[in-house]
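> forwarded from #structure-qc
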């Protein structure tokens, strides 16, 4: 809690501010309501609602009527918000080493790996899989939370004596200005392929939003880059910190020398500072070799020893990311969040690289998101899957059938796919039809606890649905 005068010395009022809110419906007595400008919403229109809910003061960027409570006018409420939240929470980011991870694919995996390698008692995590640190855990709708929540979480981490935070930094977060007050000690840029063009308008705009992470890295910090990524030469020019690279390229700081993929683990040889390290990783697929290399390099940049890092590799587990479920049988079920054409292709290629008879895929594509990728996803599934069930994935207010029809528009062989709009039923059908040595891939949802429909957020968890289907299959056999 802060006095309004502490936040705005020019204001005469000495009232106490309980919290900062940008959604008028979430305001409680004593909150400071900030009228930010959204893509479709101008929150100046909800001032009366915020006051009715108990707002103690309002921050605006427009002239508004006298409300009988303090009104602070600033030039840009969106720009003001992160700095205000930073100040309200006593600048918690200054007491933490902050590792930011961006990229079209791999953000969650790299962020969670970094937390595990540093130790979850010392390192907090913020991202798609929620927020957690040292006994504190909370779900979060946004990959990168809005500024009021973000700085509140960082303050919580500091109170729990955390030293680091490993966080996913989305392109939308930079586009919306949520992170503009923050500097990063280490930044990781995994890759970039066309995505979120509904928000950014073009690939170039998307790229520039991603590059903000590298530009906001401290000059004394480190920028960790994928040397094998096709946009490496462009990406490196945006780096503000010292550049460290990973990949197969002979000049990489963390060089992948060789690897051997398995159905339960991956054997890898890394070379760092002229010395080779052979490790056994519980993470599957080639892209997780890259993700592990990036995370290890980030930890080394923070001063951790290779020996300490390697000791924690056996602990690696990422909920909803190449998560192999226990079927107790000879078929496999893998849950993964992959939702871009490149990520989906990588998983399907991995499935082909291990022993299998058939690959059965359950997949959807999100509503109100990039429509151009839908037929590309359908093409990839048709190429690598023996059978595909197209279903829902956060349809929002779009017709789920229309989305599925876009995904199958290029498919010719109707015997290789079907549409089952109810996702639980789609998962049940895929697992029911699995035979010995088949691989069932449940893609797009990972371990998210919801589906976003026309009615809003509805509870749904892919792992739970899959486990129910596995149990039912056992009971029938």
């Amino acid at each position: 809690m802060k006095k309004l005068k502490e936040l705005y010395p020019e204001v005469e009022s000495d009232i106490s501010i309980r919290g900062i809110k940008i959604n008028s419906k979430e305001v409680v007595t004593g909150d400071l309501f900030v009228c930010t400008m959204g893509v479709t919403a101008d929150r100046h229109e909800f001032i009366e609602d915020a006051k009715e809910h108990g707002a103690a003061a309002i921050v605006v960027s427009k002239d508004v009527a006298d409300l009988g409570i303090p009104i602070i006018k600033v030039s840009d409420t969106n720009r003001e918000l992160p700095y205000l939240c930073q100040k309200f929470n006593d600048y918690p980011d200054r007491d933490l080493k902050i590792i930011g991870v961006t990229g079209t694919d791999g953000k969650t995996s790299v962020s969670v790996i970094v937390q595990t390698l540093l130790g979850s008692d010392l390192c907090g995590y913020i991202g798609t899989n929620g927020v957690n640190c040292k006994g504190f855990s909370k779900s979060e709708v946004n990959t990168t939370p809005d500024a009021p929540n973000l700085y509140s979480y960082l303050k919580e981490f500091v109170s729990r004596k955390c030293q680091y935070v490993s966080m996913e930094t989305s392109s939308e977060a930079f586009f919306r200005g949520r992170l503009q007050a923050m500097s990063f000690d280490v930044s990781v840029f995994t890759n970039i392929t066309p995505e979120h063009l509904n928000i950014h308008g073009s690939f170039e705009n998307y790229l520039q939003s991603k590059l903000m992470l590298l530009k906001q890295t401290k000059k004394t910090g480190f920028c960790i880059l994928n040397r094998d990524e096709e946009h490496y030469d462009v990406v490196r020019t945006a780096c503000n910190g010292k550049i460290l690279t990973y990949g197969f390229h002979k000049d990489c700081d963390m060089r992948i020398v060789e690897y051997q993929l398995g159905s339960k683990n991956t054997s890898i040889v890394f070379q760092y500072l002229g010395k080779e390290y052979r490790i056994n990783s519980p993470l599957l697929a080639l892209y997780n070799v890259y993700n592990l290399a990036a995370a290890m390099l980030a930890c080394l940049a923070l001063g951790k020893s290779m020996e300490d890092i390697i000791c924690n590799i056996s602990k690696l587990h990422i909920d909803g990311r190449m998560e192999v479920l226990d079927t107790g049988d000879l078929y496999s079920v893998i849950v993964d969040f992959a939702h871009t054409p490149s990520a989906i292709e990588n998983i399907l290629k991995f499935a082909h690289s291990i022993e299998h008879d058939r690959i059965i895929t359950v997949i959807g594509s999100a509503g109100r998101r990039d429509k151009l990728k839908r037929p590309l996803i359908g093409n990839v599934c048709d190429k690598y899957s023996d059978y595909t069930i197209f279903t829902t994935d956060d349809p929002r207010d779009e017709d789920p059938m229309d989305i599925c029809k876009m995904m199958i528009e290029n498919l010719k062989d109707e015997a290789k796919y079907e549409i089952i709009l109810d996702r639980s039923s789609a998962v049940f059908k895929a697992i029911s039809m699995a035979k010995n040595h088949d691989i069932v891939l449940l893609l797009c949802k990972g371990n998210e606890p919801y589906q976003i429909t026309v009615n809003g957020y509805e509870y749904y968890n892919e792992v739970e649905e899959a486990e129910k289907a596995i149990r039912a299959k056992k009971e029938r056999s």
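QC bot note: Residues 286-301 form the longest helix (16 residues). The chain has a mean pLDDT of 94.
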